[in-house]
Amino acid sequence: MFLYLVEFQRTIYLALAEQIKLLSAGGDWLGFMAFLPMGVLFGAAHALTPGHSKAVLATYLAGSDAKVARGFLVSITLSVTHVTIAVVIAALSLPLVSIALGSVGRAPLLEDISRGLLGLIGLWMLWRAFSHGHHHKHEGEAVGFMAGLIPCPLTLFAMTFAISRGVPVAGLLFAVTMMAGVALTLSTVAVLSILFRERLVHFFDSRPRLFNAISRSIEGVAGFVLAGVAVWQISSR
């Protein structure tokens, strides 16, 4: 499955490169616009590969009291940040690249910031689980933003290539369609996580004390996982 996804992405990326080359040589934009919907499939497939904070998203939503609408908002925030940060890096070009990028397609500085902030969210969830703290209204969006700070490498490649060929608008348009695909996959993960949690809530409806204990335990475990993963990933670099 993973190899199929990689090959699928490679096929679309090579087709995108050809489209951008045609545009830079004076090709017509109509053909490029007809190709753009492939960006949605590209983004959706890309988000299915390892990474993209799917585990972080599922863990947080399973341990929170977010409803489906909030889950959508969190996943969209993550998707928009994940793609936009790559567009910004490409647009700012060499000054930010020389500071933030350690290798092609990666941004170690932003990755460490993202993991550190997620670790703090994990500690906050642990504290709340044991102290009966309350959820803040915009906590979910904050988690989505922090998890999305790791830039999308394929968006960065596409933007850099389009800019180098003198057609940055083409890269930007493809990034927008790719963002929609990433959001589609991450929203599905979010909804499934929330529906799973709500099924548990329904099962324990007649056992409020037991549910409360289990709910706090799940939140505590989610917080521990987020904090632990953040510490492990930062320390193993």
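(the above was protein one; protein two follows)
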Amino acid sequence: MAAYQYVLRSGRSVPDDVSIMGYSNFKQSEIFYGGLTTIAMPTYEMGEKAAGMILEYSAGNREALGQIVMDVQLVERQSVQAKPV
């Protein structure tokens, strides 16, 4: 959101001159200057998986720690505009 404000203060337009995208899909993203395009992450499930990995590791399973890939969702709002190629 700070980048969004910086672009506006510099006299440029979002999304006409600069496209801006955030992550986490905070509630403020919806109302911030007409909407900030963002990536929605499954934060509850991420915490649940992390806690499970820690518990397994603590119980002696040294292979419990590893990479987990989770789906995310693109939430399109007004801060991004496709540019012609």
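Reviewer note on protein two: The chain has one domain: 2-75.
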